[in-house]
Write a structure and sequence with these properties.
Layout (H helix, E strand, L loop, with lengths): L22 E5 L5 E5 L1 E3 L2 E8 L2 E8 L7 E3 H6 L4 E8 L5 E14 L2 E11 L1 H9 L5 E3 L1 H4 L3 E5 L4 E5 L11 E4 L1 E3 L2 E10 L2 E9 L7 E3 L1 H6 L10 E8 L2 E15 L2 E11 L13 E3 L1 H4 L2 E6 L4 E6 L14 E6 L5 E7 L4 H4 L7 E5 L2 E2 L5 H7 L7 E8 L2 E8 L5
Parallel strand pairs: 5-10, 6-9, 16-21, 17-20
Antiparallel strand pairs: 1-9, 2-12, 3-4, 4-5, 4-8, 6-10, 7-8, 8-9, 11-12, 11-22, 13-23, 14-15, 15-16, 15-19, 17-21, 18-19, 19-20, 22-23, 24-25, 25-26, 26-27, 26-28, 28-29
């Protein structure tokens, strides 16, 4: 899920100060910090945000977005005037028509952030079916540049405070970052077929996968020649549409002193959009970031990582072989968007376009999309009974979960 312009190799820029920015802020309780709880969905932190003193609305904390964004439907419902239409691009190869809104205030805890202008993008229409929940906006670079932001994935809390000098915890590691046109990048290396391959990776709290390689990096380093077992699948939906990648296991990712092993990585084939760019190697996403307490300190050009209790947990993929999307006003109607060849779902006769009506004799609407995805990601060998609607047909299939990759 992305909203990006091209990452040009221009010099890193200092974060703009509030007085020189189009944004101003204040903490209403007179302090210099606030803390809010978030909900984790598809590895992404969803934060309650007030828009012009109404809400709360749900915004994704997105270190890969080069501005703060209000969703187009949400902006229109709130009567925010729009002007200057333009085309934006993100994950996927398409573009969407966006606009600029004026005089919009966002409230997060005791923080109030006023935007003279803010980007308005149809993010909900683009990604809510893949998220299984309404997306009212994104907190991106315009947010990260002003504060020190600590994301505690174990406690589901985000701490926001004005930048200050501080010494990281003894078990934490400060990783240098570049800030290039609203994106942050860090140096890392992957190990494949006894080769150590260095690269520059975008750090993205709103990218659900662990590790994704851009298509030019895949080609230049001949990465797919270094893996033995692969599958192709939809791996997500962004503002530019769906992304279909090749998936394979990577022995290790080195991020400063941390080595994250046996990673499930996406190898992009993109011909347009963010993943076709040649000026960075790939994306380190939320499946990896959630293994840490992460502090973003743009003022000091660093990201501070402290491993949490999930650090050693394995990276898993859907064991049914499905990519499922949601529909309807409450996003509780589930449809099959992709079936992996020779997977348990394919062997059971599930097809693209099928609607899931029941799961283990319960109405599918009793679950959220996130709950369904977690169910199919855990417990190799576990059986699930799925009621399917296909046109006028209704029937039941049995799926036995199996690790596909």
């Amino acid at each position: 899920m992305r909203y990006k312009g091209r990452i040009d190799k221009t010099p890193a820029r200092m974060p703009a100060s509030p007085t020189n920015s189009r944004n101003t802020y204040r903490f209403t309780d007179g302090s210099d910090r606030t803390k809010v709880s978030f909900e984790l969905n598809a590895n992404k932190p969803y934060i309650p945000v007030r828009i012009n003193d109404t809400g709360p609305f749900w915004f994704i904390l997105d270190s890969g977005a080069d501005s703060n964004i209000v969703d187009t439907q949400t902006a229109k419902a709130l009567g925010i005037p729009l002007k200057d239409p333009w085309e934006s691009r993100g994950g996927g190869e398409e573009t969407v028509t966006s606009a600029v809104g004026s005089n919009v205030s966002l409230g997060v805890g005791s923080l109030e952030l006023h935007h003279a202008e803010i980007d308005v993008v149809p993010v909900n229409a683009a990604i809510s079916s893949a998220e299984g929940r309404i997306v009212n906006g994104l907190l991106g670079y315009d947010f990260f540049k002003l504060f020190m932001i600590e994301v505690d994935y174990m406690q589901h809390q985000v701490s926001i405070q004005e930048p200050k000098e501080f010494q990281p915890h003894s078990e934490a590691v400060a990783i240098p970052i570049q800030i290039i046109r609203g994106s942050i990048l860090a140096s890392a290396a992957v190990t494949m077929s006894e080769r150590r391959i260095p690269g520059s990776f975008l750090i993205d709290t709103a990218w659900r996968s662990a590790l994704t390689f851009t298509s030019p990096f895949v080609a230049a380093e001949k990465l797919l020649q270094s893996v033995s077992s692969t599958v192709d699948s939809i791996t997500g939906m962004g503002i530019g549409g769906t992304t279909v990648d090749t998936l394979a296991r990577v022995p290790a990712l080195e991020l400063e002193q941390y080595s994250i092993e046996n990673i499930l990585a996406n190898f992009s084939h993109a011909k347009a959009g963010v993943l076709s760019q040649e000026d960075f190697s790939g994306i380190i996403g939320a499946e990896i970031l959630r293994k840490f307490k992460v502090t973003f300190d743009y003022a000091q050009y660093r990201m501070i990582l402290e491993p949490n209790a999930t650090f050693a947990e394995p990276h898993e993929f859907d064991m049914a072989g499905l990519f499922i999307t949601s529909e309807g006003e409450d996003l509780r109607k589930f449809r099959i968007g992709y079936v992996i060849e020779d997977s348990p779902a394919a062997q059971a006769g599930v097809r693209v376009g099928d609607e899931i009506e029941t799961i283990d004799d319960r109405p599918a609407s009793a679950f959220s999309l996130e709950q369904v995805r977690v169910m199919f990601k855990e417990g190799e060998g576990r059986e699930h009974s799925i009621g399917i609607t296909r046109g006028a047909q209704r029937f039941r299939v049995s799926l036995t979960l199996k690790r596909i990759i």
